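Handoff note, outgoing to incoming analyst
You'll be picking up this chain. Sequence as last confirmed:
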Amino acid sequence: MDARARRLILINSVIGVTIAGISTRVFMISVPTLATALGTDILGISWALIVYQMAGIGLGVICGRLGDIYGHQKMFGSGMGIMAVGSLLCGLSQNVFQLILFRFVQGVGGAMIQSSGRTLAFRAMPAGSEGKAQGLMAMSHQFGFFIGPPIGGLIIDLVHWRGIFFLLFVPSLVGMALCFMIGRSVAASASQRQPIDYRGASIFLGLTVLVTLLLDQKIAEVLGRSMQLLLAVIFAGALWSFIAHERRTPSPMIDLSFFSVPAFGYGSVGLLMCCITQGLVTFVAPFYLQEVLKLTPTFMGIIFLAPSLLSMVLSPVSGALTDRIGARLLLMTGVIILMTAFLIGANLGANSHWLWPAVLLALTGIGSALFNTPSQAVMISSLPKEHWGTAIGIINGTFGLGQMLGISLSGIFLTLAFRYYSGIPGTTPDPGDTHIFVASMNVTYMFALVIVVIPLLTSIKMKKN
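Most recent structure output, in case you need it:
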């Protein structure tokens, strides 16, 4: 592969991962507008977000494995095309059911882009530069997160809500065109002749749907406890079936022996726990800022830009340092910074200055950048190159699952603590009852502080890159 092809691949990967980041965040800012325009409620429009998450978690691993078999250049180009079509169809949606269907199409494209785009970037970088590759990809994704909300809000205010989807159409086509320009510069995968584990892929996708139904609180309210218990039993049976099948098949969708590699196994556990705590912060902090401290949505939005901005800036630095000094010190430093952030959250009061939660969010961005980038770089580089696509798919799925678990667990612990402090069984957290809500929030942050001890322990076990 010549230098020009490497540059084109890196540019295209940056474009694709940025688009995937924008498509996630730009939708969040448009949820109230979309619900009104399409004549639905919060539960209905939330499914348009849920199906996108399902596709990312369930199909990320599958797309990564297919890329390892058929070639990531083909998968990436196809993903860009599907993202373009999905974005166009979302913009043309006439009702919420169409939007949900087409958001799933968008999610399929996003899953293909994320898994294959990151893999191509890793392979385009020189050996020993895995940290820089991951830092570049993390920066691109965070850049999409950073610019998505302000661009989306501007388009909704000045043009139309449909414009936020049309926004992604042209750059997706550009990325697909670049794939054709690059042509066959990327060598075919060594595992090209291996069969595809269709059964394993189907079971894994079913597991993704089940875990989403189990973790989403809105869905739980609709289904009721008895149906949730039944789903839990079905999930346990499906998980056992998946593990048994993957151990037997000669070419599994997820090779479970990956997790016996210390860097990948410990890294997966640490990354999941870290993502859970990040999901917790995302869920709890807005209620405190807006309902307790009475900050305006605009000012709150500015504060929430801090973690994305810091993560975007520090991820490439963290990646470069990983290549130079190894991952262990960076991982432990990142966890300690996250612990400091959660300790601040555990001590926030009803009359705290807004600067303290702002510092909390800023430290979360710094800690995440110092932890996530080295962790992923070491995990991916610990496996043979022909399995990098699958590894990146697993990592992307871990991110999505961790965020979902964080939101779900924070809601559960916030509710339990609120009921304990209020002495009212069956009540739900109410920010209007300021002191009880803040005390419950403190408990939730203490829970996050306990969880993040696990990544600290796994970091100690991680070998230097």
